[in-house]
Amino acid sequence: MSARLQDLSSYEYVLPGSAACAGCPSSIALRLVGKALGENAVMVMTPSCAVASTGPLPHSCYNVPALNVCFASAGAAAGGLSLALEAQYEKGRLQGEMPTVFTWVGDGGTYDIGLQGLSAAAERNDNFIHFCYNNEAYSNTGMQRSGATPMHAVTTTTPLGKENPRKNLAMIMLRQEIPYMATASLSYPMDLYRKVVKAKSIKGFKYIEIHAPCAPGWKFATADTVEIGRLAVRSGAWLLWEAENGQVAVSSPTSQFTEGKAQPIPMIDYIGKQGRFAHLLKRDDQDAVLEEMRAAVLRDIRRLAENVNG
Amino acid sequence: MSKILNTGNGACAMAVKAAKVDIIAAYPITPQTSIAEKLAAYVAQGEMDAKYLPVESEHSVMSASAAASAAGARTFTATSSQGLLYMHEVLHYTAGGRLPLVIANVNRAICAPWCLYVDHQDAVSQRDTGWIQFFVSTIQEIYDTILLAYKVTEQIEIPVMVNYDGFLLSHSMMPFEPADQALVDAFLPAYEPNWRLHPQWGGTFGNVAPADEYTAHRRRLAEDLEKAKELIESEARNFQDLIGRWHGGLLDWQGPGDAEVLLVSMGSMASEVQLAVQLLERHGIRAAGLRIRVFRPFPREALARIIPAGAKVLVFDRNHAYGTGGGALLSEIKAALYDRRDNIQITGRVMGVGGEDLPASLLASQALEMWEELNR
Amino acid sequence: MNQSTNPSAHPFRQPLARGMTGAAGLTGGWRLQRPVLDPAKCNGCLLCWILCPDGVVAKDTRAIDYEYCKGCGICARECPRKAITMVKESDYEQNS
Q: Would the CB atoms of C53 and A22 count as touching at under 8 Å?
């Protein structure tokens, strides 16, 4: 990996001195995305940690043109922006290569309030990349549950642990048969980088969801951000895969699970390191709960594998 | 150019085509739908060099339009009723963002209960969004005002809503005169934005503002809305010089100049008001119609200037300003004339809500009733 | 877009901000622990550079910009050669 990291651009989307928390996963992931997309890009953001991190007007930590829009607006705004730029390049009012349009949106703006507009943009095949940095809750407002919050996780609105499993949005996107989609993790930077470069090369709607462990929200030490993301993948709690026009390809190391070459590490190795699951470890029936979580992971792996040839 | 026969929505679509709009995002709603359909047909048939984005809701219509405008494109959309209400959040956003936009709002009542017919509750509910709001009264005025709206919005960078009455104007046919394309191009040159959301310009648009920045930014919008009055009047005169038609600037006084009874209204009702004025003449009442053509910014100074001392001002509202005992226009007129303190009497009626028919005879009898109340 | 704090002086009516280093101030002041690199142990793998949320590690020299480093500790945790050590700011100040 070291040789390839050398090749990554020094161009930065996120400049030092942002208002993001120490260890912010959005900043890590967006820096990587910037190195893949380059200077000729325009970003659309909806209310989220990444917006709160910007710093106050008239200053901004972002070194890429950015439009802050309303919470439910990502899909439509990016679609409108992309089309408006295309119209002006066609009419000769703008010259050169058209910038890459992408969104930088949290799980709330993707799974919940923004899903209608996003699904419509996917159906229209609008030309942009939607990035969801998924920190599994409304972290910007102080960690409330979202549709992406996993079962049993404590948030401020699920103080006893969430009772429902998360929405499997990647599978919903898969069924929309979009040109390209991928799941990724900031803990696997070169895999993420490769997927962003690929998305950039494809015209139409692209969806990339990046698992983004949030230290203050999930309650672990900031230094462990990348390690927690890695454990999520190794435990199968987060699966790495991609699909071109509905054709699924599983990425390493998740492919070792789907191909039956390796087993995920125990769930306790992942959730045991996060305060949001600490209540589970005090329960008498914790073994049964962990077994259920493991079964859910294995089911998701099996279903993903079924889609490879599906 | 010779006159043609078309519906209000047809005239609106023709004006949008003449304005050489780049981007149209639209979603169907009665009675606006035929604008969205006509524009889709223009684009599909290559009669218009524009992009059409068929979004899934009005919230997305305005979100897409906002971003398209930020990218520097001339942008249009149309809606009605619930659709306008569903956009509400993004209406505030686009005005605060100072994004030039034009929307045709074909006025329709709002639910509950459901109602397809005209009133002004949809637009009046958006009066504090920071948008410029026109209310027009004829099909000719729809066509002309769409063109004027682009000229205004692209200079002052405040979005403009052109309101006209559902079915009464949107679906009825009237003869009107489209403008020669060369004259439209002379009046409305290609849009040259000061800034674009593009790497060439850079910048982060609309991040969190501290109190001082926010206060100053919003105050600038309020101040620029006041400045918009002069701009609208001067561009309406430019339009008259170039294309030869005049519909009033901010206000439209319709009737004898020495009238001391004024029947105030907005939208197509103003045409019936002109007939009602003639009926009142038979009762020996010297009346005139006063049509509010621009509701936001509200023409306070022009009203205070034009209304004579001792006048009786009778206001017809096609909306409720709930909890105020009347309609929005009545409150606005009273507020605008309060400082005059020269014996102006003002009263009003809420009429025509939910498409209630407003023949001149009804308006005249209500005006007579109000006149008598004021004389008691 | 200038960086004046007087918005009425802004050349654009739109609410526009300019990207800059330190948009939220000198965030190095948030730091409780300081990452200290031992260049002798560093093999230049660049994981610290790519995984730093705040982009404060120089790609060429791996020098850390302490004016903005928030002290999250990811670089030290992820360094495969353990070339970065987290030192309490109070200890660091006493020792230097």
A: yes
Tokens 């330190």 locate to: C22
The interface predicted TM-score (ipTM) is 0.96
In angstroms, the CA C58 to CA C48 distance is 9
**In one letter, which amino acid is A154?**
V
Interface residue A225 vs chain C (CB under 8 A): yes
- Strand, coil or helix: B162: strand
What is the dotted CATH code of the domain comprising B4-243?
A: 3.40.50.970
The answer to whether the predicted template modeling score (pTM) of the entire model surpasses 0.90 is yes
Cβ–Cβ gap C56/A53 under 8 Å: no
Q: What CATH number has the domain spanning C24-89?
A: 3.30.70.20
Question: How far is the C-alpha of B44 from the C-alpha of C27, rounded, in Å?
Answer: 54
Question: Given CB atoms, is A36 within the 8 Å cutoff of chain B?
Answer: no
* Both tokens assigned to C85: 């050590």
Hey, is B193 helix, strand or coil? Answer: coil
* Cβ atoms within 10 Å, residue B181: 12
- Class of the B251-375 domain? alpha beta
Distance CA A113, CA B186 (A): 44
Cβ proximity of B254 and B277 under 8 Å: yes
Q: Which two tokens stand for residue C21?
A: 């280093």
Closest to C49 in 3D by CA, of C69, C21, C20: C69
Mean pLDDT of successive 10-residue stretches along chain A, which has 310 residues: 78 98 98 98 97 96 98 98 98 97 98 98 98 97 97 97 97 97 98 98 98 98 98 98 97 97 98 97 95 97 90
- Secondary structure letter of residue B275 according to DSSP: H
Domains of chain A: 2-308 (3.40.50.970)
Is C17 at the interface with chain B, CB within 8 A? yes
Provide the residue type at B149 as one letter.
A
